[in-house]
Amino acid sequence: MMNDTFLKACRGEKTSYTPIWMMRQAGRYLPEYQKVRGKVTFLELCKSPELCVEVSLQPVDILGVDAAILFSDILIPMEAMGAPLTFSEGHGPIFPEPIRNQAALDRLIVPDPDVHTGFVMETIRLLRKELKVPLIGFSGAPFTLATYLIEGGSSKVFWETKKMMFTQPELFHNIMEKITECTSLYLQAQAKAGAQALQIFDSWVGVLAPCDFKEFALPYVQRIISDLQDTGLPIIYFANNGATLVDLSVQSGADVLGLDWRINIGDAIKKVGNKAVQGNIDPFALMLPKDKLRQRIQNLLDGAKDAHGHIFNLGHGIHQFTPPDQAKIAIDAVHELSAR
Amino acid sequence: MMNDTFLKACRGEKTSYTPIWMMRQAGRYLPEYQKVRGKVTFLELCKSPELCVEVSLQPVDILGVDAAILFSDILIPMEAMGAPLTFSEGHGPIFPEPIRNQAALDRLIVPDPDVHTGFVMETIRLLRKELKVPLIGFSGAPFTLATYLIEGGSSKVFWETKKMMFTQPELFHNIMEKITECTSLYLQAQAKAGAQALQIFDSWVGVLAPCDFKEFALPYVQRIISDLQDTGLPIIYFANNGATLVDLSVQSGADVLGLDWRINIGDAIKKVGNKAVQGNIDPFALMLPKDKLRQRIQNLLDGAKDAHGHIFNLGHGIHQFTPPDQAKIAIDAVHELSAR
Question: pLDDT digit string (tens) for A204-221?
């Protein structure tokens, strides 16, 4: 018996309660995850289907979320393009050879996702055999992926990325084109392998002014989502810190818009028309005492009452120091308080 | 002869062109600043009125902006409260003794601004003798200042701050109370010394959900601005990354709302009623080629045509690698394109 509440909510269909999952639910806040992670490096974990299956299942089994998400990293397909990638404790991902000219870009390939990232597809196939809730596949969005390649890692202000956008727009667009092709194929392969919904994470797009989002980022998201129409899967587009991009994000073609915690969910729902929304409690608000946490969840459910489908989620990934018990309180509260 | 275009725009009065200044206009992008800074540490610079005067005047003389801003740092009054402060190259400000309990808070004093930060008041007095444009004094906003004290420096996610807000709200409010008292006195002293407008920088408040902004941050800004009413000076409140906080920021009592670059200025103006706005071009857009930069400035001026006063500014501080010539192009373009 399959719990398909999440998929119904994605499609704007009536559900008997509001489904919930949490971004980064398979992650460091869980001791069970830490135990697996302690045995291997982060990249080894990402490339081991058996371990990826184990950690992807943990939040479903321990916390009772209504959807699983593939354990992986948005940069895996960038490494497959030929950009050497390392993860260092405390500094996050590093691309020691940033892509800042056409020659460097030309050296990157458009990988065959089944060949170069076969471990991801294998994880999906294995997970589908185990899961009683829907499985979400995912990728980064082209702008966010481009920032890592151009900056050479994560950044606070994205100077190199924006400098290229503003002074070498052709090169920037060429990078986006290649990443888009790669991402489109990558998500299509995930659909073929058995993913039942797909989320596109645009983690850093919130640094763009609306006019630049429209010119430099949105068209590439649109193309990917257009390429995925034949899969029939619900697509979630999450533009982090994108309160002022909601109007434009509606044009992405996504079925569901992910919302970070900065925007009042009711205000967002007024802008999204007949699309579903996903979000959007501040992940740090999971630290609230139980009664206040439940009250905040009630307020959020009330704010989302006119949504054309609402998937409860955090407004960003769960923080590594969050006690799992607090996550469990939130999940139970969403199920209980939203029961119709 | 005084150029009072900036002050008129703050008050919503008609001006013959749109005044412009740039956040961090006295800063590292100017070789003339680097020359001064090369001789002293950052904190020594902040505490030397003569050098502060020199660098505060540089953008007025070199670039032709319509307002000067006191050269200082928002953390100066926090150090005066008794929190040891260091600046390290590449890591920014560090408070080696973070404030995370009542005892640590009790050890902080409410300084007499004329005694403990007399160098700031002296800078203001000296600058007023030199300037032919209005002088802006400033402070950090209590929430932003509290994050530095609680985190022990700058932060990416503000875990310690929010954890305290959500699990020890009384302690958090106590910290905010004390910072508010200090900040209120500090700005009143700046007014007395001769500042002609005051800007309150809430650099990190954009990490708060609207409900938390309303509960934990806004009341303290309101109190400071209320305390400043007798000065008669225009007050600018800049809630960085605060697109979803504009409606609430209107209630701060400020005369001018600063806008970061993420929000379409026309959308913001619809929300602010009869207040003036300040902003909001992406500081990195200064890198655009001249014709595109001028077009973007024209678009922004068009978007602000219904403003009840518009002060052109960047949506954040000017980046250290911006060529001064590009800043000059923008300033000239604003003056030329807005001439009425």
Answer: 999 999 999 999 999 999
Is B65:B21 a contact under the CB 8 Å cutoff? yes
CB-CB neighbors (< 8 A) of B299 in chain A = 211
Burial of B190 (0-12, 13-18, 19+ CB in 10 A): buried
Interface test with A, best of B165, B212, B244, B267 (most A CBs within 10 A): B244
**B239: enclosing H helix or E strand:** strand B235-239
Residue B89 has pLDDT above 80, yes or no: no
Query: Is residue B279 within 8 Å of B316, Cβ to Cβ?
Result: no
Residues of chain A found within 8 Å of residue B206, distances taken between Cβ atoms: 262
Q: Which of B148, B186, B220, B237 is catalytic?
A: B148
- pTM of the complete model: 0.97
CATH architecture of B5-338: Alpha-Beta Barrel (3.20)
Residue among B166, B209, B289 minimizing CB distance to A262: B209
Local structure of residue B16 (DSSP, 8 states): S
Residues A70-105 pLDDT 10s: 999 999 999 999 999 999 877 799 999 999 999 999
Pick the CATH number of A5-337 from 3.40.50.10310, 3.20.20.210, 3.30.2130.30, 2.40.50.100: 3.20.20.210
Is B148 one of the annotated active-site residues of the chain? yes
> Which residues of A are catalytic, by number?
24, 28, 37, 73, 148
